[in-house]
Amino acid sequence: MNPHDPFASEPNKLLASEALEAVDRGGLRICRDILYHFNYLANASGKGTAVRAETIEELIADGLLVADTSVPLDRSGRLLSLTPTGEAALEASRTGDQRAAAALSRSTTPDPSDAPVLPPAAPRATRASRIH
Prior knowledge:
Distance between the termini: 74 Å
CATH class of the domain at 13-98: Mainly Alpha
Number of strands: 4
CATH topology of the domain at 13-98: Arc Repressor Mutant, subunit A
Number of helices: 4
Largest sheet: 4 strands, antiparallel
Strand order of the largest sheet: 2-1-4-3
Shape: elongated
């Protein structure tokens, strides 16, 4: 991973920033299914989340998130939190989102309602109509 761009590797920037936002909101846990041994996520309400466990695992491996290892993964799950690098990456993604929104608000895309109304085009003569 490039230390200057925390989103340089997969998961892509959108998935990574959504995952960091979900962890920042609090209560997100990574859990393991006891029977099938796959990881899944649960938020504070006990319901699932749109963020994928694979995305979280990659962010943990990249050093952006940390899971509380004091509790078993297959019980109530491990609470996730941002590392200082993850906090910086989240702030950078928010700043980038604000820049993009500002640029879009400054765009001078013409308003379609300002376009002149043209009369309908006259029908073209077809070959069949010229023969007769």
